[in-house]
Amino acid sequence: MPKHVIVIGAGPAGLETSANLAKLGIAVTLVEKEESTGGHVKQWHALFPALLPGTEALDAIRKGMPENVRVQNKTTVTGIEAVNNYFTVSGHNGWQEKADAIVFATGFQLFDARRKEEYGYGIYENVITSADLEEMFATGKSLVNRHGNKPERIGFVHCVGSRDEKVNNLHCSKVCCITAVKQAIEVKQMLPEAEVFCFYMDLRMFGRHYEELYKEAQEKYNIQFIRGRLSESAEDQDGNIVLKVEDTLLGKPLRIKAGLLVLMVGMEPLAGTKSLADKLGLTKVPDGFIQPADEVLQSNFTELPGVFVAGACSGPKSVSDTLADARSAALAVAGFLKL
Amino acid sequence: MKLEGKRLIWQEYQKEIADDHYFYARSCIRQTFFPGAEAVFVKILKEELGKDIHDEKHHTSCTGIGYHSDVVPFDTTMTVVARQFALMTEAGYENYAASCVTSFGLYTEILDTWHHFPETEAKIREFLFKATGREFNKPKNLAHASDIVYKFRHQIAGKAKYKLVDKDTGEPLKVVEHIGCHYSKMFPHKGIGGAEYPYVLSGMIEAWGGEVIDYPERRHCCGFGFRQYLVQANRGFSLSCSKKKFDSMEPYEPDMIITNCPGCPMFLDRWQYALSEMEGKTYGKGKNGIPVFTYEEVAGLIMGYDPWEIGLQVHQVPAEPLLEKIGIPYDPDRKFKGKNGEDLGMPESPSYLKFYADK
Amino acid sequence: MEKKARQFGYTITRDRQIDYDANKHDISKIVAAAEPSLNLCISCGTCSATCSAALFTDFSLRHVILLLRRGETSGLAKEVAKCMLCGKCQLVCPRNVSTRNLIIQISKAVIPAQL
Ligand SMILES: Cc1cc2nc3c(=O)[nH]c(=O)nc-3n(C[C@H](O)[C@H](O)[C@H](O)COP(=O)(O)OP(=O)(O)OC[C@H]3O[C@@H](n4cnc5c(N)ncnc54)[C@H](O)[C@@H]3O)c2cc1C
Ligand code: SF4
Ligand code: SF4
Ligand code: SF4
Fold it and tell me: Which residues contact B285 (CB under 8 A, 6 or more apart)?
């Protein structure tokens, strides 16, 4: 009997894992809770660092998807059971199938910015998130504040919902520093007259060409980087957002207004992933992200034979990291199935 | 501003407030700062709402001021507070209502400390017993008095004679609400509406017809800060904190400020005098200043109580322009008369702020 | 007023906060136009660590750059006067900021304004 693998989640990780498994002759069912595949990248207008459009990236990933990948969409996986040497996976809608191995590719959820009450998201109209800004870029909406004016100053706040024990997220979301630099540049391209500020705790330009993009942001676009974390925002009579940060390198509190404030929301583990992991008896899910059997040597294995991870469900990743991780997951699964 | 956003947060920070039978602990400073406020609270609860409220004669200061000024050690403070709880227990009550925000914060802090460190509670029980022979139950319900007025704000509105509305234009008055830091900044879940967008006073203002102003320095402390005020040389710090708030709220042209703490109305009121004398600067229209009230005084005013009976003559910033705006009658000749009509004497007239003594 | 303050025994404390909106930014614009590498500084402090003047005074080029960019320019003339224009900072800057010319340009921009 041909081997059958169920991949949970059809973001970049699930798509890439499935395609590679299928190329190895394995029958794959790719289960996705939404109507269409693509995960979060569907929402990203352009990807850092080279501004590749998100839709183009997804088209490339989906292109040539082998026929032995069957997409089971509009199905949220809610149950998994390990029975002898196979797994039974079931969805919220009654869908159920058996598999010889399963791959978690459930990704992440965006931090709900309203939880940082003091930042005023959902209260002050001109406070938006990085995801909102991507949507504005994608729909071609012009960048105007609630009075219909072009903002003269735009602020980006790093680490919103990341590196913050007050919201129970100790981890760094990894992609938001470079996303802020990318978005700051895009904003500056749209509004060359505007002043753009990034408020950061540390700038983590970990990837290839990220530092270059950061330098370009300074050199070509005069984007200012202020080391200090937003403590609170308020609204003035004109709907501007009044920020309180410390300029930590000067050692002085700073008060500055912005016509538009963008919160760089982080990646959070999905509650659903944790509950599925619990059902299977995975014990290493310290913060809601699934921890691989060994973070250095066995990044796609879990502590349970036949259960694998790919992409951001094991921790924040960029798309390129995710794709590489997904390909390596496919090989790990194939090895397990002794193909 | 999207009010729905705030409403979502307000829903999250609601707390249980007892419905009746309160053991009331007054503040050690409010009776001199705003002498009518507590009496109005007791009167409204007893006479207007028909509640049972025990106005305890034997309680002392909670030592909050001494504690926050580093002159009273925490063990002593806890023992004094344990004695207040003993008085409550002896009087047969279990719902503690604190008049003072700092006391409320301190009680909350102590109950939380005892919750996490039962051995500390046991030690304090021992101290209290050795010192006074008293024992106590912890309150079943701890509320700040403003929580209670918040709870009954609609009933109060139902009985009110006046609204926070300009009698000529019918427009709602623009009201700044200022919350004492210790109300919810230390324990956000113990305050109505939490710490970032407290609702306790906003809820009253809405219910009584006014419009709340959200200005940039809304969350800033009034500047009391205990040792910052108590040491004369440090007072500039307190003063400057209040100034920051006034400068920030000024463009919104507020009609009044409402507070729920002993210190805040004192400082927001008196510092307007100090600032005007130092800089010649007055806030509010026509050198009138921005009048500052406790929520009890405002409740009393809308109920139609006499402004001088509820103590408004001791305010530094005159209340008269606001009374006129709402249409509340007052007798200017009685402003500085005692309860039997005797002359109380008149304060010195400020150099800049308007003074309505001899109008 | 001063008499009054004495009478009260305390005065209004000046705000330490940098008020970016109230500050003027013309000097930083003039300097950035004359020496665009100003914008590249990442506040690493390599310049101030190696600076001879910084070892004997509280001068720091890193600090001067930040003050300039925040519009806190009132004390800058006095600050840059501490520099000996030796050029050591330029050797070490990882972002290739033209530090020596930057100091010259700051002096040019602030001295007329402050003398
Ligand atoms: C604001 C922001 C901007 C970003 N911009 C970039 C960028 O410019 N360049 C870049 O490289 N990276 C960027 N990223 C990172 C990028 O989004 C991730 O690398 C990528 O989405 C990870 O893919 P994934 O498949 O692991 O997870 P996801 O994209 O989250 O996909 C997971 C999929 O699983 C599905 N799913 C989850 N649970 C279940 C379940 N129980 N049953 C069925 N289906 C389920 C979800 O519906 C989803 O479709 C950005 C991230 C953020 C937060
Ligand atoms: S990548 Fe940057 S913005 Fe995102 S959490 Fe890490 S340090 Fe913060
Ligand atoms: S040029 Fe000036 S700032 Fe640079 S190292 Fe020499 S003295 Fe210091
Ligand atoms: S060495 Fe260069 S980058 Fe570093 S602080 Fe000095 S000028 Fe800035």
Answer: B253, B321
